[in-house]
Every structure is written in structure tokens, then in C-alpha cells.
Design brief:
The chain has 201 residues and is an all-alpha fold. It is 67% helix and 0% strand. It starts with 21 loop residues before the first helix and ends with a helix.
């Protein structure tokens, strides 16, 4: 997957170059993610990523537009399967399990990286757009599909708005996490029970 975030201040990536080595790509993304966890988004440089990965900065610019693109791809590569909705079992049970897992995720090291990314994109419109396209839209589509399965299975009424349900389940967990407040599975269960009960009226 190629993640692109435009940034006029960075040197352009050459149009042609050697094909990417998968081993080298993974080494770069591991290095980038480690630095993102350690330093935060703003305090990571292309030079640091290159040094830790054992490559030249020219290699980075040949394969990515800028550090934002590398860090976003590193986040996606590391957390892609951390919060799956799953394919087995009742759709409503899978939605509940996802909600509880999200609470645990937000307390984890990977969750803290996610929250840093959420904060960093507020002052970076191009990063925000890339996150919206590469993270938000695919994840929202996954969640909407599970809600629609629950409707088809008769577990939720047909009048339910799938996007609204996902927002009601996720928003009350992410907001306190961004404020540094405790998020736990008990609160996630309370939110889930309330939302599902209210949606049945």
C-alpha cells in the first residue's frame, strides 16, 4: 500500500527508481513506528528514520512523499489487525466485542500512538485527509457492514442508522481517552448496552 501526503516543503520523490524491497520497506516502517511511539509525531525526522532503518534518506524520499506518509503507513502496518470486527458469530456479539476491544486498545501502547496521531492531524490538514481516506473510511465501512448484518439478522431494528450507531459506540470512548481520562471495558459495556437498548425503541 502506498500512502501519500503532499508537503511542498519536502523534496519531490523521483518519478523512477528501483522497486521497493519488501524486507527494507518493513524495516523502515518498524523504525518509523518505534520513533513515533518514542518521540511523538512532530519530533520524528526523516534522518532519524533512515538512521534507525539503516537506509539513506534518498531511499525514503524515493518511496514516500514525506515523513507524514511514512508514519501513517507505519501506523497502518502495525495496527491493521489489532481491532478486527471478526467474521464469526452473531453480528451484535461481534459489535460488542469490538467495542470492548477498543477500550483496551486505547489504554495500550498502540492506542497511545493512535491518540498522538489524532492530535497531530489537527494542525496538519494533509495528514488529516490521508488519515480520513486510509484509516477512517475503511474502518467506518467495516463497522457499518457489521451493523447492517445485525439488522439483516433481526438483532437490530431496520430503522437504525448504521453510521450513527458506530459513532455512538466509538465517540464516548475516544473523547475521554483524548482528555487523558480512564477508559475501561466496564464503561465500554455500559455504553454498548445503552446504545443498543436505545436503538430498539
Amino acid at each position: 500500500m502506498k500512502t501519500s501526503v503532499d508537503n511542498a516543503s519536502e523534496p519531490p520523490r523521483p518519478a523512477m527508481g528501483r522497486p521497493r524491497s519488501e524486507k527494507t520497506r518493513k524495516a523502515i516502517l518498524r523504525a518509523a513506528y518505534h520513533l513515533l511511539k518514542q518521540n511523538g509525531f512532530d519530533d520524528v525526522s526523516m534522518q532519524e528514520i533512515a538512521l534507525r532503518a539503516g537506509v539513506s534518506t534518498a531511499t525514503l524520499y524515493r518511496w514516500w512523499e514525506n515523513k507524514q506518509a511514512i508514519l501513517l503507513e507505519a501506523y497502518l502496518e502495525t495496527t491493521r489487525e489489532v481491532l478486527p470486527y471478526g467474521k464469526r458469530g452473531s453480528p451484535l456479539a461481534r459489535l460488542r466485542k469490538y467495542t470492548l476491544r477498543l477500550a483496551e486498545f486505547l489504554k495500550s501502547e498502540n492506542g497511545r500512538v493512535f491518540l498522538r496521531l489524532m492530535l497531530a492531524m489537527q494542525d496538519n490538514p494533509t495528514l488529516r485527509q490521508a488519515f480520513y481516506e486510509n484509516v477512517y473510511l475503511p474502518r467506518r465501512a467495516d463497522g457499518r457492514a457489521v451493523v447492517e448484518e445485525a439488522i439483516a439478522a433481526g438483532e437490530l431494528p431496520a430503522s437504525v442508522d448504521a453510521d450513527f450507531i458506530i459513532s455512538l459506540l466509538i465517540g464516548p470512548l475516544i473523547q475521554p481517552a483524548l482528555l487523558g481520562q480512564e477508559v475501561n471495558t466496564k464503561s465500554a459495556q455500559t455504553i454498548f448496552d445503552f446504545v443498543i437498548r436505545a436503538s430498539s425503541f
